[in-house]
Design brief:
Strand content: 5-15%
Largest sheet: 2 strands, antiparallel
Number of domains: 1
Strand order of the largest sheet: 1-2
Structural class: mainly alpha
Number of strands: 2
Number of helices: 4
Order of helices and strands: EEHHHH
Oligomer: single chain
Distance between the termini: 48 Å
Helix content: 55-70%
Length: 125
């Protein structure tokens, strides 16, 4: 995080100051989630797999676990570690409520847009 600080000794000159976030307050899972942009990756996966309105079964599927495990492996590249699937399950569980809320919101927006479009095509304004 960067903030600008007024240097009182020189008047109006601004000096950028970097305030580091305490790394000991961040879990390895949070680091992976951010590094992989995991929420958006899972949302992209969902919309590639599922086309039905508010159907979220794929979020609980083994295929998603395997997909996330592959993403983690590609990022970490540690062939000796064999807990990628367990880690993927933990990360999905940590994000699933936010992901499902986002899917519902997007699906509602798409349905509203479709209804407005159909109403416009009929001429019923």
């Amino acid at each position: 995080m960067k903030i600008k600080v007024k240097d009182l000794s020189k008047g109006v000159e601004k000096v950028p100051v970097r305030i580091p976030k305490a790394i000991d307050n961040i879990s390895d899972e949070e680091i992976l989630i951010k590094a992989l942009d995991l929420k958006n990756e899972i949302l992209d996966y969902h919309y590639n797999v599922e086309q039905e309105y508010k159907k979220v079964d794929d979020i609980y599927s083994d295929a998603l676990v395997e997909y996330v495990a592959d993403l983690i492996y590609d990022y970490c590249q540690d062939a000796e570690f064999d807990g990628y699937e367990e880690m993927a399950k933990r990360l999905i569980a940590k994000l699933e409520d936010d992901i499902i809320d986002e899917i519902y919101k997007r699906d509602d927006n798409a349905r509203d847009w479709e209804e407005a479009r159909n109403e416009g095509l009929k001429g019923d304004y």
